[in-house]
Amino acid sequence: MDIEREIKLIDFVKDNRGRSFSWGQCDCNTFALEVMDAVHDTDLAAQIRGKYESLLGAFLFRRRVPGSLINILKTAGFIEGKKGFEQTGDLMIVEDPKWEMVHICLGSQAVAAFPEHGVMTFPMHELRDKSYSVWRLPCRR
Fold first, then answer.
1. How far apart are CA 16 and CA 65, in angstroms?
2. pTM higher than 0.85, yes or no?
3. Which of 18, 39, 83, 113 is most buried, judging by how many CB atoms fall within 10 Å of its CB?
């Protein structure tokens, strides 16, 4: 990630830290796509924002549209990376039978929206034992 995009990422995270969690508005998926929009001047979050309003709604949306987040990323040009080689700005999709939990890499930290805490950062090492895929949008000039 180039320095200009890294600054956009850091500024967006600073401005949104502590933002309240809200299904379909500021959950881990919508927040991650908002970050990508802010950093890469895309409009990805609009594809899922407001499509559900509750935990059950999110679950049903995921069942109705399997792989929805990964399909959005692939269509936008994201490529899958390798776990253990994450870079600042990469998305990490934690795989769980019920959910796709998305976090954004910030060097040795990660950021995501959580129901109980809203948008917060946490140490990357907390993901060490989790199964996840890494997604990166190659820089275009």
1. 28
2. yes
3. 113
Give the residue ranges of DSSP H helices in the chain: 3-16, 28-40, 55-64, 68-76
> Band of the pLDDT at 27, cuts 50, 70, 90?
very high
* pLDDT above 90: percentage of residues in the chain: 77
3-class SS at 122?
strand
> How far separated are the first and last CA of the chain, in Å rounded?
11
User: Where are the chain's structural domains?
Assistant: 3-136
Phi, psi (deg, nearest 5) at residue 103: -125, 155
pLDDT, tens only, 65-84: 766 788 899 999 999 999 99
CATH topology (fold) of 3-136: endopeptidase fold (from Nostoc punctiforme) (3.90.1720)
Mean pLDDT of the chain: 91
- Asked if residue 50 lies in contact with residue 111, where contact means CB atoms within 8 angstroms, the answer is no
Distances (CA, A) of 48 to 14, 31, 36, 111, 126: 23, 10, 13, 19, 27
